[in-house]
Write a structure and sequence with these properties.
By secondary structure, the chain is an alpha/beta fold. The protein is built from ten helices and 14 strands.
């Protein structure tokens, strides 16, 4: 596919409230030393009671729109990648559109914006880039707002030490156009993979498989469960393989890459993937220590952080890599 998809604005948001490893020591049998050495995580940001994924999404959306110099009325599509939406219905994307003022006028006209949530778990943002690429190939005049937003703290069992230490809340957003006007990076390529036979490795219930009646206690499988060791193994193997394949497809090596941004779930996974790829450590971006795993938000949060830190400049060659529930994974090339 020709390079017909460009990121022209970027923004992110994390809530003010911070939960440190020491805070978690008071909730479960864990230690700062264990969490830091096994995951690289020092703290995570948590939404206050009353604030939801859509609130985080709105903040990131405002930042990305301002960065792009795009007004909400110009948007043709709003896609929200999330596995912790405010509701099954309405979609988080519709909530965002409503709060951006994109409502139909009296005559029923005026809100030609397609709003949709989708769930590829932690791979959601990268899957969303492919979705945007496809939409903009068909509608080059379109303007897509793609948001990765999560309120995972709502679906974490804070008595389960094997999962509650790993996740945080936050959102990141990009504005994508079919033309290169105002482009920060072109989305050169995306590859999205899955293996549904491994769906049981990461599960968050609450859907129709959960047969609950009004008044029932919340079943345990309402909360996220994960077979951590297995996920770790698959994540390293798949992320490394797909990243390598992406580079080969474009006749590139890791030396051609300016920055490698992998899904921020665990420092040990990022380091293992980096080492399998043979990429210089200085080119590997890491911010998992500050936010933990924010699922669909990790990649846009990392892109925004990297830019703020001066490590990412427009036009640089960026290799993105992701992995998540489903299971899903993939790679993308920005330049
Ligand atoms: O976004 C994609 C989804 N997620 C991921 O990518 C996460 C992938 N997995 C991981 O990051 C790691 O597997 C974990 C961080 C979840 C776990 O690290 P691990 O090195 O694989 O530890 P483990 O599960 O093998 O557990 C080792 C020990 C166990 O004790 P025993 O059986 O050896 O006595 C656990 O019970 O560590 C224990 N443990 C803990 N100890 C203190 C598990 N969680 C904790 C904890 N604090 N929070």
């Amino acid at each position: 596919m020709a390079n017909s998809c460009h990121i022209c604005g970027l923004g992110s948001y994390v809530p003010d409230k911070i939960l440190t490893n020491h805070d978690l020591e008071k909730l479960v049998d864990t230690s700062d030393e264990w969490i830091l050495s096994r995951t690289g995580i020092r703290q995570r940001h948590i939404l206050e009671s009353g604030a939801n994924a859509s609130d985080a999404a709105m903040e990131a959306a405002h930042a990305a729109l301002a960065d792009a110099g795009v007004s909400p009325e110009e948007l043709t599509h709003i896609f929200v990648a999330t596995c912790s939406p405010d509701y099954f219905c309405p979609s988080t994307a519709c909530l965002v559109a409503g709060r951006l003022g994109l409502s139909a006028k009296g005559d029923g006209q005026g809100a030609h914006v397609m709003c949709m949530d989708f769930n590829a778990a932690c791979s959601g943002f990268l899957y969303g880039l492919e979705l945007a690429r496809s939409v903009l190939a068909l509608r080059p005049d379109g303007v897509v707002l793609l948001i990765g937003a999560e309120a995972l703290s709502r679906r974490i069992d804070f008595s389960d030490r094997s999962t509650c230490i790993l996740f945080g809340d936050g959102a990141g957003a990009v504005v994508l156009r079919g033309s290169s006007a105002g482009s920060l990076w072109g989305v050169q390529d995306c590859s999205c993979c899955s293996d549904g036979s491994l769906h049981n490795l990461i599960v968050m219930g609450g859907g129709s498989a959960m047969e609950v009646k009004k008044g029932d206690m919340l079943p345990d499988d309402f909360f996220l469960t994960m077979q951590g060791r297995e996920v770790f193994r698959h994540a390293v193997r798949s992320m490394a393989a797909e990243s390598r394949a992406m580079l080969e497809r474009h006749g590139m090596t890791v030396d051609d890459i300016d920055l490698f941004i992998a899904h921020q779930a665990n420092l040990r996974i990022i380091e293992a993937v980096g080492s399998r790829l043979g990429i210089d450590e200085s080119k590997v971006f890491v911010n998992v220590q500050d936010y933990a795993n924010t699922s669909a938000a990790t990649l846009p949060l990392a892109l925004d952080d990297a830019r703020t830190q001066g490590r990412l400049k427009p036009g640089m060659k960026v290799l993105l890599s992701t992995f998540g529930g489903g299971i899903t994974w993939g790679a993308a090339l920005l330049a």
